[in-house]
Amino acid sequence: MHRRTLIIAEAGVNHNGDPARALALVEAAARAGADIVKFQSFRADKLATGAAAKASYQQATTGSEQSQLEMLRALELSGDDEERIAAACRSAGITYMSTPFDADSATHLVRRIGVGTLKVGSGDLTNAPLLLHLARFKLPIILSTGMATLAEVEQALGVIAFGYLGDAAANPTPADLAKVLLDRAAWDELRAKVTLLHCTTEYPADPQSINLRAMATLRDAFGLAVGFSDHSRGIHIAAAAVALGATVIEKHMTLDRNLPGPDHRASIEPDEMAAMIASIRDIEAALGDGRKVPAPEEVPNRAVARRSLVAIRPIKSGERFTADNLGVKRPGNGIAPIEYWSYLGRTAQRDYAANEALEP
């Protein structure tokens, strides 16, 4: 059977820096049926300089007057806020997750909050020091791969593998990172703990930019579990990703797409999240186990839809069956039509009325 897809409702920064709205997002994600609600943990001054420009979509949604750094400062949650949100998740029966953007935020998530899985955003796939810090917690990692080439993904996996297996105090050299990917134990560890998310880093992403088949490329190249971080409009492309083998779906969620802020317009609202999850669960059920056998529900319909050998005009005992007196009609509870040619030329053992099914 198809593995149950893990659904991450990406609250991200859609709380707009308001802890009360963050708590409302937790409740909405839980009601929608998500497995995880994910936030973002960062300190703006550690993430960007004053010279960092906003992305074009951020300028479109928040204007160009403030810098990226100023925007990020307004979207921070404190460590205490995060702990309250995590407690609310436990009460609501949904798993708390957050993407750390710096080592201190990651340590807080693991040591204080007790997260069981770490998520890496696409922007940090090349942030080798952060990847190494995360891997040394020995926890599962979900790694988004937006903007990346296969070579860059492989480099990131080398850093993560070194963190999983290497000396906790050692800094890897390029030779170390190349060597670790030749180690079967490293790949065993990566396959046990790392999921790669295909992603298009644009908000929203147009369908022609999404390239869902790249998800299979990642799976074939590295042998790891794969999923999809979806920035498209609507819910249908996420559902298609599940049909193509995604084990994780991440989708931005907002309480109101018209709220101010960088990500609201590219997010879905709670009722859409619920509809997406319902569609995904239907697709999982429909995928089945791949064996081509009748479903139990089909078996009674065989007699209704299939046909049997019948006399198409009256036949006397001793008369031979021919193409003129033998045919196939419903119901299908008699001799199967595959026997038609073997009956031609045989002698009828009794009289048959028109439309009467033949007996063996």
From TrEMBL:
E.C. designation(s): 2.5.1.101
Keyword set, alphabetical order: Transferase
Keyword presence, Transmembrane: no
GO biological process: carbohydrate biosynthetic process
Top-level taxon of the source organism: Bacteria
Listed name of the protein: N,N'-diacetyllegionaminic acid synthase
Gene Ontology molecular functions: N-acylneuraminate-9-phosphate synthase activity
EC top class named in words: transferase
Matching CDD domains: SAF_NeuB_like
Domain AFP-like, first and last residues per copy: 308-360
Annotated InterPro entries: AFP_Neu5c_C_sf, Aldolase_TIM, NeuB/NeuA, PseI-like, PseI/NeuA/B-like_N, SAF, SAF_AFP_Neu5Ac, SAF_PseI/NeuA/NeuB
Organism whose genome encodes this protein: Bradyrhizobium ivorense
Pfam families, A to Z: NeuB (PF03102), SAF (PF08666)
